[in-house]
Specification:
Structural class: alpha+beta
Largest sheet: 6 strands, antiparallel, barrel
CATH architecture of the largest domain: Beta Barrel
Strand content: 35-45%
């Protein structure tokens, strides 16, 4: 029987963020009410490198209440030979569209398997107005006691069991809905999720959860997200049409989502034209990005992009856009993961993760599975010794130790043990 151990060290500090916007000038916005079929427009997005490139569009009409009550979408056709090959692709969400020199909105929607590059544009007014009011922070959880039996790896862990079942149910429902009878529907463009340091078979286990959240996970397609100092911004930082990247994990592992900047108003950034996770107040890092290429696919063409310099934080995530500010620093969860292999070798890993009640436990599970799957066998008798240390600001350290024996999929057992305490703390 193989014996090996894994230990974690996490440092958590919890804060509540809020934001309020001064009403911006709309002099440079093109009103949706003036859209007429046949109008020509100009858009910008990055196809390769860092510099946005111009493309042409034709306005087809306005779909009133197409996506949400009171929120319209402008139906457009992207013109040019390249779009006949790649269509409206994942990663161009947020690409700004201009009519007569005024900003109409962001490319944000498309039809899967459409022969023509038909897409939908979220009006810029809807993207900006939704962040004008001061955002109410989500209520904080009341302090409560948690026993070890609640988070131990067994069938009596009700909260985490409910969490996993709920996520699985949502994932299955989203996948089923996306394939229901082949009914054509204008859907938000998927957000490419570049993942490095994680084996494809591990990514496949978590793909339904990511897809349910609107991501398009791609294995080993981009460079790692660096843990770097904040870069001072200038006039070219996250300008309209440039690539914006939101790292979820950075360090020895990298998971990052890519989109496009729609509008920059001083230090304020508006992007995507649709939600990221639709969590309202957020606190995720915001990086510049570079595009390697656009990969054509009959099912879903997508940008292969990777993060470069950190330039700010994503502070808002609503139905029509994400909002960020340059120079802001996002709160991250630092993680040290040490694996003592069955051969006696010590393998240390360090990385930062975003702090989110839904994402953080899943990201923790994924990294644990990646570490163990890359070093140990997954079938056969194994004994796992797991030690976790959680450091919460202003509180004594929490140390959890557990020993498990299994004959099937030891990495999954360790991953569940790693995710349960985080789920209990964040929920």
């Amino acid at each position: 029987m193989k014996r090996w151990g894994i230990s974690f060290c996490l440092l958590l500090a919890f804060t509540v963020a809020a934001f309020a916007q001064a009403k911006p000038s709309a002099d440079n916005f093109f009103p949706v009410e003036q859209v007429k079929p046949g109008m020509k427009a100009i858009g910008y997005t990055v196809f390769e490198g860092r510099e946005p490139r111009k493309f042409e569009l034709e306005l087809l009409g306005v779909l009133t209440g197409a996506m949400n009550p009171g929120q319209s979408a402008v139906l457009v056709k992207l013109l040019g030979e390249e779009f006949q090959h790649i269509g409206v692709f994942a990663g161009m969400s947020g690409s700004p569209v201009y009519v007569d020199g005024k900003l109409l909105g962001a490319v944000a929607f498309g039809y899967q398997f459409s022969k023509d590059a038909i897409g939908g544009v979220t009006p810029i007014k809807d993207m900006v107005d939704i962040f004008e009011q001061k955002e109410k922070a989500a209520p904080t959880n009341q302090p409560r006691s948690i026993s070890f039996s609640e988070i131990a790896l067994n069938d009596d862990a009700p909260e985490f069991k409910t969490f996993v079942e709920d996520f699985t149910r949502k994932a299955a429902g989203a996948v089923a809905a996306s394939n229901a009878g082949g009914v054509p529907a204008l859907k938000r463009l998927a957000t490419p999720l570049a993942i490095t340091g994680v084996a494809p078979e591990v990514i496949a286990k978590f793909a339904p959860q990511f897809q349910a959240l609107g991501f398009y996970p791609v294995a080993g397609m981009a460079g790692a997200a660096p843990i770097s100092e904040m870069k001072k911004s200038d006039a070219n930082t996250l300008k309209p049409g440039s690539t914006i990247v939101v790292p979820l994990i950075r360090g020895d592992f990298s998971i990052s989502a890519a989109g496009t900047v729609t509008w920059r108003d001083g230090n304020k950034i508006y992007a995507f034209g649709h939600p990221f996770l639709s969590i309202g107040v957020s606190d995720f890092p915001m990086n510049e990005g570079e595009v390697i290429t656009v990969l054509p696919s009959q099912a879903n063409s997508f940008k292969i992009a990777y993060p470069t310099a950190q330039v700010g934080a994503m502070l808002g995530d609503r139905s029509t856009a994400i909002y960020g500010e340059l120079g802001k620093t996002a709160q991250m969860l630092p993680v040290e993961l040490n694996l003592r292999t069955s051969r006696g070798e010590l393998k240390p890993y360090k990385f930062d993760m975003v702090v989110d009640r839904f994402l953080t436990p899943i990201l923790m599970q994924m990294t644990v599975m990646a570490v163990l799957g890359g070093s140990e066998r997954t079938i056969g008798d194994s004994t796992l010794q797991i030690r976790q240390q959680l450091s919460v600001k202003g509180q004594p350290d929490i140390t959890l130790e557990n020993r498990l024996s299994t004959s099937m999929n030891a990495p999954m057992a360790a991953a569940l043990a790693a995710g349960q305490p985080l789920s209990a703390l964040l929920n």
